[in-house]
Amino acid sequence: MKRMCVAVLILGATGLAGCATPRQQVASGLQSLGLAERQASCMADSLDDRLSNDQMKRVARLLGGASHADRVEANEKNVRRALDLVFDVADPEIASAASRALLGCTILGG
């Protein structure tokens, strides 16, 4: 019985991890690439306000792939790489929203 309870807890926790919203995934992806928690959260909020759910999912996938690709320490190079990925997307709305989020949250101190 004890093992069954532990298994249920593990499965429950694993299932919840997969339920993160695109906004949370974007914030997490930005943090894993070196942005401070405050900046990553600010940028994710800004992007979430401006983009559709599908666009946010696309950004989350791009950032997730960039943060796990090399498994290296977060540094300025990784942040630039993530931003390059987002800005290079063929969707002009994503590029525009990313520019505004970057300006408002990192350069101007959001």
Using only C-alpha atoms, the radius of gyration works out to: 16 Å
Order of helices and strands: HHHHHH
Which percent range fits the helix content? Answer: over 70%
Q: How many separate helices?
A: 6
Strand content: under 5%
Low-confidence stretches: 1-17
Cα(first) to Cα(last) distance is: 51 Å
- The overall strand count is 0
* Mean pLDDT across residues: 75
> What characterizes the major β-sheet?
none
Could you characterize what this model shows?
This protein is an all-alpha fold. The chain has helices at about 1-15, 20-30, 35-50, 55-70, 75-85, 90-105. It is globular, with a radius of gyration of 16 Å. The protein starts with a helix and ends with a helix. Mean pLDDT is about 75; it is low at about 1-15.
